[in-house]
Structure formats: C-alpha cells, structure tokens
Design brief:
16% strand, 34% helix, seven-stranded mixed β-sheet, 7 helices
Amino acid sequence: MDECSLRLLIIMKILNLYAGIGGNRKLWGDEHEITAVEIDPEIAAIYQDFFPNDEVIVGDAHQYLLEHFKEYDFIWSSPPCPSHSRMRRINSGTGPSKSPHTYPDMQLYQEILFLKHFFKGNWVVENVIAYYKPLVKPQKMGRHYIWSNFDIEPIEVESDFSIKGSKRECFDISKKKCKHRKDQIMRNCFEPKLAEHILKALFVFESAFKKKQEVLYG
C-alpha cells in the first residue's frame, strides 16, 4: 500500500502537547483531528495562524494529558528540554555568564511512564540528548531522544539551524508579534521532516496491525 493510501486509511485524533508554533505538526497534513496544547498565549496564537483547522488550547500540557489522554488515538509530547540539555550542564554554576543550578525536570519521565502503562493508543515523547544516561532508554535521532511504543526506522534529517533570526525553511515568523526571541523560537522547532517520518512509521505500524487482526479474526 502506498503512502497516500495509508494516510487516507488511518485518520486519527491527535494530541500535540507542548506544541510551540508547530514544527512537528508542519507536514502532518489536514486530514487528522488535531488538538494542540501550548501554555504561552503568544506562541499559541502563532500556531493557530499556521494551523487554523486545529483546536488550540492555552494551558498546562502536563495536566491536560492526565485529564484527556483517553480521548486520542495518537499523542505527541515535547516536554521542556533545557533542564536536561548538555548546554545546561556546561553553563550551570556561578558567575555572570552561568545559569543557576537546577534539578532535571522529571515531568519528562512521568509522561513516558504514564503513556507506556496507561495509554492504549500510540505515542511519542521527544526531548534533547541529555547530559546524563537516560532513565528510560530512548532512540537517538539527530539532536533528539525519541521514546515511542512503535518501531521507527532511524534516519538523518538535515537541520537548518544555521539560519539566524525569524526564518527557517519550515516557518517565517518575522512579521508575527511576540515578546520572545524569534531566533530561539526557531531553534525550538522540531524538524518537520523528521516528525513526518515518525508519523509515516506509525501508519506502517498501524497498517501491519490491522492486517494481522484481519488474519486472526477474519
């Protein structure tokens, strides 16, 4: 079955947590019913401009997951990454150029364990490559750790982080009103092509599962 047929066969209710401006969402198409949760109103407004058909909720993604996870077929979560990053370890300490010491944010592992043991659908959690050995073994892709409950073939996706300012291949927010540094918003975008690859892997997984069920149960 070709990619187009798979996309039409598998229509999902998707929950996109910590959505940012939608880097991961960019190449997912418009056939799915997508709910995005983003805590920052200005960032959420930019997401809504790019994806007007999605339902955008301004709120706490961690709490929303706990209260609404049963309503979705596929959940993507990108919890805050700075406290896990290698740069945080390098920059932590004292002095004017150093960040204050901080605990790693354990919401990341709370969500991985919660989804693994309580969610009956498919899921992905992504974060940066950490400065420590992960407490739950991930798959490494590019500059990301990926946790999921379905197989994803590793690929290398060329990033465009060398582009500075408010433009990247995936988005142009140069005219968007926002108090945040736009170059940082751009850096926080998950690579659309990698997210598309992950969703295709889910389509293949779901298609194989459906065929197996048909064989077993007619």
